[in-house]
Amino acid sequence: MIKKSQHKLRLIILCGLACLVTGTAFAQLPVSTARPRIFLDPATKANLMAKRAANTDEWKNLLTNANKYVPKQVIPWNEVTASSNQYYNTGDIFYSYCGSNWEVAALTLGLAHQLIKGNKTGAYPTNYSAKLVQLADVIIKAYADYPPNKNYQPNIFQFNSAYATRHVGKTIAIIYDWCYDELDVTRKAALRNVMIDWYKYMSATPYGLNQLQNDPTGNYYVGHLICAGYMGYAIGSDNPISKKMIDFARQRMVGTPGSINHNTATSGESAINYFTQSIKGGLPSGAALSSLQKQTTVDAVWNVNRVNGAGDANL
Fold it and tell me: Does 271 have pLDDT greater than 70?
């Protein structure tokens, strides 16, 4: 994919995350029953379809990049291919770094499929949805062959202390939502099982997931937030656990307790620190620095100023 298109995809991803979170920032609204629901609300899709009708450069670039994937392989996932360098520059769809190539392929092929399908209802297979069905099969098999574990063994979500959650969760959600009508019942159930099973594992504070409950300024923390949010919106009314997934993401974004009753078996999740700490700064509510911590903080600030030549070196 050309650099310009990659940049646009990144912008789409960031805007999409904002859309996922903003609408439920202070009260979790019911998930729309209409599909697609990730990124492509009716107004956005209509705008993009108009670009297709006008044969704009944006549409032609998307189609060019999507067509590059169609004749290529979808590389099976295992402990060797997961970290192999041999597929770079081949154009094949492969795991790449922690699932990042999967994500780019899913967004590119999925968007081309949706804009060609337009507003048609029911199954409308295209070359692009067919390629994503192949990717779905690879993901389903990989998760079955390499389930989550506590021993740092291979798993599609757990690579690099679960850095991969951000890419893999989003990839599965996009395929499930954007190719919903083109996936048969068995594949839909299998993809849904992958998302639900991983969420249950991830939300149980398992071994080997970096920054699951703390360090809200860290990218791993936000990666898990992204994973849960996308999967929750993709599943929606297909399974009630989607509410917990969205709650898990929402609560980490806005820094408030989840909307689900914490006294029930389906209670919401609770993090030690919240994402707002990285926005507003400061310590968690009720926390205070000890005398030693205050002294250490003052000493550190003074030392930085002294070394950089700023401020008074006398303390």
Answer: no
Report the number of distinct structural domains present in the chain: 2
Instruction: Note down the domain range covering 25.
Output: 3-284
Distance of alpha carbon 64 from alpha carbon 58, whole angstroms: 10
- DSSP label of 118: T
Global confidence as pTM:
0.77
- Calculate the average pLDDT of the chain: 78
Q: Are residues 70 and 206 in the same domain?
A: yes
Band of pLDDT at residue 217, cut at 50, 70 and 90? low
What are 74's strand-pairing partners? Answer: 93
Please tell me the distance from the alpha carbon of residue 202 to that of residue 221, in angstroms, as a whole number.
12
Can you tell me the distance from the alpha carbon of 256 to that of 76, in angstroms, rounded to the nearest whole number?
Answer: 41
Q: How confident is the model at residue 250 (pLDDT cuts 50, 70, 90)?
A: confident
**Which CATH number goes with the domain that contains 242?**
1.50.10
> What residues contact 144, with CB distance under 8 A and at least 6 apart?
none
Letter for the amino acid at 264? T
pLDDT digits (tens, 9 = 90+) for 46-74: 999 999 999 999 999 999 999 999 999 99
In terms of domains, do 106 and 238 share one? yes
**Cβ neighbours of residue 25 under 8 Å, at least 6 residues apart?**
250, 253, 254
What single DSSP character describes residue 30?
A: P
Sequence-distant (6+) residues with CB within 8 A of 50 are none
Nearest-angstrom CA–CA distance, 140 and 203: 20
